[in-house]
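Format notes (please read before filing issues)

Several people have asked whether sequences and structure tokens are stored in separate files. They are not. Every record keeps both together, in the order shown below: the sequence lines, then the token lines. Line labels are part of the format and must not be stripped during preprocessing.
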Amino acid sequence: MDLFEKTKGLGLVRILKQADLYPFFRRIDGSKGNNIHYQGAELVMMGSNNYLGLTHDPRVISAATQALQTWGTGCTGSRFLNGNLALHEELESELASFYGTDDALVFASGYMANEGAISSFVGRDDYILSDSENHACIIEGCKLTRSKIIVFDHLNMADLEEKLQALPLEAGKLIITDGVFSMTGRLAPYNKIHELAKKYNARTYVDDAHGLGVVGPKGKGTAANFGLPADIIMGTFSKSLASQGGFICASSEVIEWLRHKARTFMFSAALAPASAAAALQALRVLKAEPQLVERVRANAAYLKQSFDQIGLNTMGTQTCVVPIYIGDDETALVVCQQLLKLGVFTTPVLYPAVPRGNSIIRCSVMATHSQKDLDKAVEAVTQLAPIIMRANEKPNHEAMADGLDISPEMSSRLATKFASYGAPTV
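Then the structure lines:
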């Protein structure tokens, strides 16, 4: 069979587009941060990780503009060779100071930070213990190590300890966890993880992509929330810091190792000057205005409480990710599309991003959301609550499909099911 024959499939994509339920690559024609222009209408953006609302802050925009004028549009090479700017080192210094670590290293993306860091110092004879709901880039980074990968049940410290007990005490061990889990908003019990790491001679690695700017004193993240250090802190600029890129904060020895061993750092063009400058200025705003952290937390608490009062399942969120549990994939798609019609942009999360038959609608809250924005979202969700609750009551939820390419039988079943909902309008 020709290699590209498979590209003629994607039957699920075709069915979803025909039903006007395809939820991906929705073109946004303009953005003010908390509000966007979509298909000629202004919508409340409840699907962005722009937690502090700094993407449109004049100070952040000015810093990025100045960097373009000073450094140009790109570095045209890796930092290992010609692309190491004073701007990168300034950003790294302030990140290390913010987190209280010796040093930091900036990568071109958060995905590359996780892949490069994990794969650079965990070897064949070492062990990785990874939460079952860790982000995909952690999973891929673990695979690259060719080490012994042990997955423990989500947030289950008894299971983690049982797995640690079975390993040689003298072996190299790394416990990896998301600080804030991006689909549910749940916070890792880092105090327990830290305790077990000390007890069983392991190191800790916290992906704080969704914790920075949201969790802990002054938004310093998950480990700081418990008043404890982490051996390695990973983070991104694409959320609270209103830019793009990723970073690792750790001891000077670990960072020096990564500079010379992390292949995603060494063999990639350096982070663009404008992105570095925007992240640096956003970090400075965060440090100078901790009230932004309090504001986004208050907005998230209001949204969660409002959804809870309706009777929806917000899955025990503790942060600024506020999920609405749906169950089956089809209902999640219908609800997402109808929310668009009601002026609210959200994101459906389906298998395999969440466990099979546990689809959600994910709302992400910003410090810049107004009360009017939040109330509009609550009103829209309230109108759709009967559909959501009926889905919650269905037994034996299944994923819509195992992949994007589906059989004719599955295609017919889905087409019939979508038709039973009626047109995606309210």
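For reference, the curators noted about this record: Residues 371-392 form the longest helix (22 residues). The longest strand covers residues 321-327.
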